[in-house]
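Dear Dr. H.,

I hope your travels went smoothly. While you were away I took the liberty of generating a structure for the chain from your last submission, since the lab meeting agenda had it listed for discussion. I wanted you to have the full record in hand beforehand rather than looking at slides cold. The sequence, exactly as received, is reproduced here:
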Amino acid sequence: MKPGFLKEPMSGNLGLLVLRCAAGLSFALHGYDKIFGEEGVAGFALFVESLGIPMPLVAAWLAALSEFVGGLALITGLGARLMSIPLVFTMLTAAFLVHPGEFPGNMELPVSLAAAALVIGLMGPGKYAVHFGNSKK
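The corresponding predicted structure, in token form, is as follows:
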């Protein structure tokens, strides 16, 4: 490999950092709005109920917390692999229950965010992340 500004391992880790921060910010802001927004989780639960999802208040809290906490996990990298699981599930639920048949269109954002969470879940957070202990990642 020729010396250069972005060497192979560094560019991969920087790419994961950018992906984590961009997707994590989007997740965290959407989750924050569901929890602390004008209507809060109760308002979001009414929407979830209109979709026919059972136990709408529980489902609303799970979706909102997975987005908010999962977004923060992606940004820091701490627990990013574990948190990618509920994020992928939440975004695929949004894509196929909230926006069915809207591709291209409104389905693109949840599908793209699900893909980003899946990539982070499979590859890990990369070198530029918060790690506990004697991690060599």
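Two observations you may find useful: The radius of gyration is 17 Å. The longest helix spans residues 8-36.

With kind regards,
E. W.
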